[in-house]
Amino acid sequence: MGQLVGVDIGGTFTDFVLIDADRSEIRVHKVSSTPADPTRGLVDGLLEMEPAGIDAVIHGTTVATNAILERKGARCGLIATRGFRDILELRRRDRPHAYGLTGSFEPLIPRDRRLEVDERIAADGQVLLPLSVEELLDAGGTLVADQVEGIVVAFMNSYANPTHELEARALLNERWPDLFVTCSTEVLPVYREFERTSTAAVNTYVQPRVSHYLRQVREELGRACGYDNNLLVMQSNGGMLDSAAVSETPVQTVLSGPAAGVMGAARLAGEYGMDRLITYDLGGTSLDVALVVDGRPQMATVTEIEFGIPIGTAMIDIRTIGAGGGSIAHLDAGGILQIGPHSAGADPGPVCYGRGGEQPTLTDALVVLGRINPQRSITGRDLDAESAWTVIQKQIAGPLGLTVEGAADAIVAVATNTISGSLRRISIDRGHDPRDFTLFPFGGGGPLFASQLLNELGVSEVLVPAYPGIASAWGCAVADVRRDFVRMFNCRLSDLDMDDVAATIRGHTEAGEQFIRSSGVPVDRVEIIVEADAGFEGQTHVIRTPIAIDRLEEGAIRADFRQAYDRHYGVESIDFEGLAELLDELHVLLLNLRTSVLGRRTTFSLKDNLAPPITSVDQACGGERSVYVDDGFQPCPTYDRTRLPWGTTIAGPAVIEQTDTTVWIEPGVATEVLEGGALLLRRTAP
After folding, report:
1. Mean pLDDT rounded to a whole number for the chain
2. Nearest to 252 by CA among 565, 483, 492
3. How many angstroms separate the CA atoms of 226 and 627, rounded?
4. Residue 99, class by beta-carbon neighbours within 10 Å (0-12 exposed, 13-18 middle, 19+ buried)?
5. Nearest-angstrom CA–CA distance, 223 and 142
6. How is residue 361 annotated by DSSP?
7. Residue 394: C-alpha distances to residues 16, 326, 407, 667 (Å)
8. How many CB atoms lie within 10 A of CB 603?
9. What is the pLDDT of residue 596?
10. 238 with 316: CB under 8 angstroms?
11. Angle ∠(590,592,598) on CA atoms, nearest 5
12. Contact present, 427 and 291 (Cβ < 8 Å)
């Protein structure tokens, strides 16, 4: 396989993993991100690793995500069926906040660039009114004159018959070949006009920026590193695509980086036989949480990247909030301490970075408490603890009447509560008991909260991988090739044509296998995963239900659905006599059939390719450092993680340091160093 590089660009740091399978060598690296030009940080960091003959670069990117959140995407237009230009603005009947009527919504495409044409397809696919070519070209001309870079074509019921959308795209591309044109059925061929139109709008909105970025990366890698192979990009579904395919449907990369982290977590924990995980990635800017069940990250049917902007393509179910190491601590209008969502990011960063930051952050609080060693930070340079102390005193401690250490401890407590709340929502709200899962922290800040969350959530154990700070880059490096397909059926199970279902799965499988072959990425085997979006007739929400290909019959699919439904809604725990019998009498509707075709690559084990240290525990101990514990400072032993012998057990309080993160062990918690260097944290006291 030669040398393979996984790269993840975050809001604060850019992480690298270089795997040389021929030499069983693994190298990791971390540099500060360069938000103004992400390519510069990527190329400079790669050159610092001095690679020799790279065979593949797999990249997790936040370009699409940032374009949406920062509203810096393309100038776009929309051409819709007459009478439906405002579907992006009408949305669903929802609101951004649970209480009150505050909040606003701004669609990605404003009303003056949303035009209408005559055409109409019936729900069964019948053409009721032909597409008006004259009106289409007039609308296109109006939008081009308004200097749009891309056009979304979203017609009513096009999922049932995409003829008019395809005709419109061909006409627009013929007249204006430089336009980016997206058909809604091209990215999401299912019903629910708002979600389909929104997904297509996101695709066009980010397409010029993502295409330009990937082209720039390829050119810079060629110029600086002599790399001339295909650039591979992580998708939001946890698989990878070549950059040419991504440029066509960039909406598939909206959660690229976080998805890589979840895949990396699933692979790393799988090496220890752990397949039920609650993962959280605490980086410099945000917190991303997800769930892994039976070794597979859970998928979302629809993901709302921002209020009113749902995306319906296949994505790992990830929840993101603004609670990273750079998140700013502040007092709200009521004088209550809050963390985030705004972040100091990479520039200027936390106050302790000494780059001009003027607002206290979570990282500043951790430095004041002694949990982060100012002389051994993941930035590779000394941190300014005195400045962190001063800013917390001025903006938090003074107004609240607290000591600086007490204020810093309060900042960490608020952050811990925020993190635990997100972890409960991703597990309990989906019908899972956190006590049945292993907590898997990663990112530069994740392990600093592992002990608190072990107690807060009631999980039995925490697994901290050998390199938590680069787990997302690891996920890129070991990702499979993946292609997802969906077809809408929207009928009762009792009326479902199982031969049609089988033929659909075969068609999806053949197309997926062809795609894997065309990617040029060597794979060991092809795996097929089939799921259905199913629900009781009359319900709005559906449950994603795994389906066995060898049991395509009504009874088996209904049984699989009931199992998924009962677990999700906790039916077995509801004390209502006759509920199960009542549900058995209801019709089950199969809305969509989803087929995932995965090209499984050769697994490279981190655990099996790390050599054990030849040092003792005493040699790994770097002495003691004063750390704030239980309302006061006390001396705590510090350890160099790379020197800890496998099989060692360390009781808290203690600090374990490494180049990409710090692991904080609270009193009442102990950690065992497993084979391969992972840490297993468990409570030693009730």
Report:
1. 90
2. 483
3. 47
4. exposed
5. 40
6. B
7. 37, 18, 11, 30
8. 12
9. 94
10. yes
11. 125
12. yes
Pair type for strands 114-117 and 76-81: parallel
Distance CA 73, CA 330 (A): 30
Residue 493's closest CA among 547, 558, 430?
558
Structure tokens of 103? 């909040």
**pLDDT at residue number 686:** 63
Once rounded to an integer, what is the mean pLDDT over residues 62-75?
Answer: 85
* Whole-number Å distance between alpha carbons of 441 and 241: 27
pLDDT for the residue numbered 378: 77
SS3 602: coil
**C-alpha–C-alpha distance, residues 312 and 309, integer Å:** 10
Q: Does pLDDT of 163 surpass 90?
A: yes
**Average of pLDDT values for 571-581?**
68
Contact 11, 343 (CB under 8 A): yes
Question: In 3-state terms, what secondary structure has residue 123?
Answer: coil
Largest CA distance in the chain: 81
Any residues with CB less than 8 A from the CB of 212 and at least 6 apart, and which? none
pLDDT of residue 438: 96
**Residue in 371, 396, 395 with CA at minimum distance from that of residue 383:** 371
Burial tier of 121 (Cβ tally within 10 Å: 0-12, 13-18, 19+): buried
In this prediction the pTM is 0.88
State the DSSP H helix or E strand holding residue 489, giving kind and residue range, or none if neither: strand 480-492
Residue 234: both structure tokens together? 């992580």
Strand partners, 129: 120
Distance between CA atoms of residues 350 and 355, nearest Å: 8
Q: Distance of alpha carbon 606 from its chain centroid, rounded?
A: 22
CB under 8 Å to 574, separation ≥6 — which residues?
none
Give the residue carrying structure tokens 């729900």: 123
Q: How many CA atoms lie within 13 A of 529 on its CB side?
A: 18
Please tell me which residue, 164 or 354, carries the higher pLDDT value.
164
Q: What is the DSSP string of 542-581?
A: -EEEEE-GGG-SHHHHHHHHHHHHHHHHTGGG---TTHHH
Contact 318, 65 (CB under 8 A): no
- Which residues have C-beta within 8 Å of that of residue 481, sequence separation ≥ 6? 239, 240, 241, 515, 516, 519, 521, 523, 598, 599, 601
Structure tokens at 589: 């509707």
Q: Are strands 327-331 and 319-321 parallel, antiparallel or unpaired?
A: unpaired
DSSP 456-474: HH--SEEEE-S-GGGHHHH
Alpha-carbon torsion (369, 375, 376, 382), positive or negative: positive
CA-based R_g, the chain, Å: 26
Q: Is the pLDDT of residue 344 over 70?
A: yes
- With a CB cutoff of 8 Å and minimum separation 6, the contacts of 285 are 10, 11, 12, 322, 324, 326, 327, 343, 345
Instruction: Indicate the residue type of 84.
Output: F
